[in-house]
Amino acid sequence: MSEQVIPKLQDNESSIHYQGWSVAAAAFVGVMVSFAPIVPYTFSLFLNPLHAAFGWQREAISGTFALAAITVAVVSPGIGVLLDRFPPRRIILPSVVIFALALASLSRLGPSIQRFYLTYFVLGLVANGTAQFAYTRTILTWFNRRRGLALAFLLTGSGVGSILIPPLTQWVIDHHGWRDAYLMLGGVALLGLPLTALLLRNQPMPQRVDESLMSGETVASALRTAPFWILAFIIMLSAFGENGLVTNLAAMLTEHGVTVQAAALALSVRGGAGIVGRLFTGFLIDRLPAQRIQTGILLLSAAGTLILAFSGTSAMALLGAALLGIGLGSEADVAPYLLARYFGRKHFSVLYGLTWTAYAIGGATGPMVVGHFYDRAGSYQPRCIVGLACTTLLAAGLSLFLRSDRNPYHASDINLASASISLEE
User: Fold this and answer.
1) Residues 6+ apart with CB under 8 A from 383
2) Distance between CA atoms of 362 and 57, rounded to whole angstroms?
3) Which segments of 106-248 does DSSP mark as H helices, in order?
4) How many CB atoms lie within 10 A of CB 357?
5) Could you tell me where the DSSP H helices lie in 344-410?
6) CA–CA separation, 347 vs 278, rounded Å?
7) Computed from CA positions of residues 78, 80, 85, 88, in that sequence, does the dihedral angle turn out positive or negative?
């Protein structure tokens, strides 16, 4: 039976008319206006306005981002369980609505920072219900031969959002104030809702599928392997460096003499470079060992961080942001690909959720550490940013311990196993 099913599932993936690309397009738009491009890439734009309005310290403000990241860490495995059991729209649609309302509510902030913390807690609860984490499982049910490219296309949505949203937010702050900017972001977050409701669905499967195709390690057995923990630590270290820098990037660059407009542009360039890097990575990942691709892009992101540590001109800031985007933007493509390659896809969403816990731990501590050193020194010291680059270099070193020949689950078996247990709405 498997020989009859496999060709049908793999038909026309290279054709633009293949239905899976419509699903990928809907996911692209959803990711473009999700938590991933909105919250991290606009957070630093509000640091100075909120300090001016309420007198809040930089470390205290950064603590809200840390709270959201910690909340993501706690709830991601649970969201993964839901995505493995229920149609994706049942998780994504309510998450998007709550996310948009929470963002818009920030326009009504008062001097009590507890309200700010509470809102970011809510944002953390639904974050991965709106982001690429929620859409990846569905994409994997539609693609086999082009799964690397499809994942890259999905993740470029975040890159496009990070190009468009920061300068738009800065323009609204400059011309209408930070309250209207939060209200605008709430509206932007709803833009992906229609396509998600209409098009996003797992690939339907025949009622009977050979049990031998139900490939995939259990969660417990995966947690007993070295590759899972190496991947988790790589993700945690890269998130520490990325979020520690990105959430403070605009404020850091303006302190170093870069104009506000150029600082916002640097955030957009970082997103644009991420698009190029992700598409190129998606092309390479179906052809070369993903582990060595991961090493290279982490080295690029470390180089970008070092340049940003000493950026005093717009040109240097844009160069550093571009390298950072190519590196850490593309690293997000490799992690889900390797998880599916090493452990199969029967419990993919749960395992992916656990790596997002690692990401959130790094993403929570990075901004807090940078904010702490800023409050102690009264400025962004280059040595602090160099420390962020060192964490990314350490992640690159760890990636060398991932063997490039480990492939216990054949690609077609993985795809069938994933699709056969997924639910169609």
Assistant:
1) none
2) 22
3) 113-130, 132-142, 147-176, 178-188, 193-199, 219-223, 226-246
4) 19
5) 348-377, 382-399
6) 25
7) positive
